[in-house]
Amino acid sequence: MNIYRPSIFDGYPISAGMSMRGQSSEFPPFGFSFRKLPLISDEQFTVHEASLNKTIGQGIGKRIIALHQEHSSQIISADDMNSDRGDGLYTMSHQVTITVSLADCCGILIVDPKQKVLMALHSGWRGTKAEIGTKGVDLLKQTYNSKPEDLLIWLTPCAGKSAYEVGEEFNDYFPGHVYTSKNGCLTLDLQAAIMEGLLNRGIKKEHLEISDVCTINDERFHSYRRDGDQGRNVAFMTFLD
User: Fold this and answer.
1) Which residues are within 8 A (CB) of 69 and not within 5 positions of it... i.e. 6 or more apart?
2) Whole-angstrom Cα distance, residue 218 to residue 216?
3) Which CATH class is domain 3-159+207-239?
4) For residues 126 and 170, what is the distance between their CA atoms, to the nearest angstrom?
5) What is the crossing angle of helices 132-144 and 190-200, to 10°?
6) 98-157: per-residue pLDDT in tens?
7) Rounded Cα distance, 88 and 73, in Å
């Protein structure tokens, strides 16, 4: 399992990143996938599972936590798991790896280095419209007394501004973040819409790392818009003991 990593968490006892497809010969049939999908056989997926577990699971002494994602703004504590449905996880535990599944949507990975809390959010256009990022910041404030100015945040590779084609209604959903491409199509700057909400909550701009990788254009990553239902990337976070 190949991993694309941010630099914003360097120097902290944290492992975080996002999976890359790697070689189809190593992870048949389309490269590493976090999710078992119809085009991946059970036998093929055992290879994916084994690599995932070795890299971020029991191979490093962690239990992998994942949710049934619903494009919602529901954020679940991985430490008590009162539900298995939602689009965000947070934890103080050193025994788990929290994850979100992505294939053009943006992952929002948040670290509070003072309160020692991790949070991973899945933010597609629906989650962004529902303000899952700002709700995550509010939840950390309310639950752990986190201060927005202390939080470190990575926005993962996702569908980029030049390729994420949307409809006219997105002008109402995300004013100021919809553009007209060279071929006359409307496109959404998803990361800018997420960032606007986070900055309005008091996140410091210098504490935000924004990946410039577009999953639609970069074939190192799965993209639902480019390839259909071939695979899912995983964004993850865990404490290093």
Assistant:
1) 85, 86, 87, 100, 101, 122
2) 6
3) alpha beta
4) 11
5) 30
6) 999 999 999 999 999 999 999 999 999 999 999 999 999 999 999 999 999 999 999 999
7) 8
Distance (Å, whole) CA 153 – CA 177: 20
Residues 65 and 238: their CA atoms lie apart, in Å, by: 10
| Domain extents in the chain | 3-159+207-239
Minimal CA–CA distance to 30: which of 15, 40, 42? Answer: 40
What is the 8-class DSSP label of residue 52?
A: H
Beta-carbon contacts of residue 108 (< 8 Å; ≥ 6 apart): 119, 120, 121, 123, 132, 133, 136, 153, 154, 155, 156, 194
pTM of the model: 0.97
Q: What is the pLDDT of residues 179-194, one digit of tens each?
A: 998 889 999 999 999 9
